[in-house]
Amino acid sequence: MPNTTIDVIFARRSVRAYTDRRPDDETVDLLARTALAAPSGSNSQPVNVIVVRNSALIREAEQAVIAYFEKQGETAVLDRIKSRNNKVFYDAPVSFFLAVKNKSAADVGIAAENIAIAAASLGLGSVILGLPGVIFNDPDTAAHWKSRLGFPDGYEFGLAVAAGYAADTGKAHSIDLKKISYIF
Q1: Going from the N-terminus, what domains does the chain have, and what CATH number goes with each?
Q2: pTM of the predicted model, to two decimals?
Q3: Under a CB-based contact definition with an 8 Å cutoff, are residues 106 and 164 in contact?
């Protein structure tokens, strides 16, 4: 039984390389709205979407993430970032910062997945990012970045999603069917 939604879910990959082609404003707005269409506990709608298309600002945030790990002496994380050409947002032309009230991890995760699946359905690549959260957790940089990105009062970083036209399709991960249990 063909099902486009299921096909998109299984075909979606985490993309870590993008072309220079930028999604149009209508597409970016549609992706932002998909985050707000996500269900939330008690319909609390705790997610606020901040769309960043300014590549210089995204690079600045990327450098702040790297500086955080350098300051912490986290060589394993730095080596991983270095292996990805010192990229955190992978030169994606748009990044969605999902700010959230009450640290609602489930709600922000659903919103991020909505963006990722919608992007794939529109022929775009995406990657869901938790790593940028360090610049919001560091007392030395949190207020600066919340202000710079226009976080509403009372909101914290939840996740980010980088998106654009994929230069690389990403790699499929294997599905471990042993992680499914049935109780009758």
Answers
A1: 4-169 (3.40.109.10)
A2: 0.94
A3: no
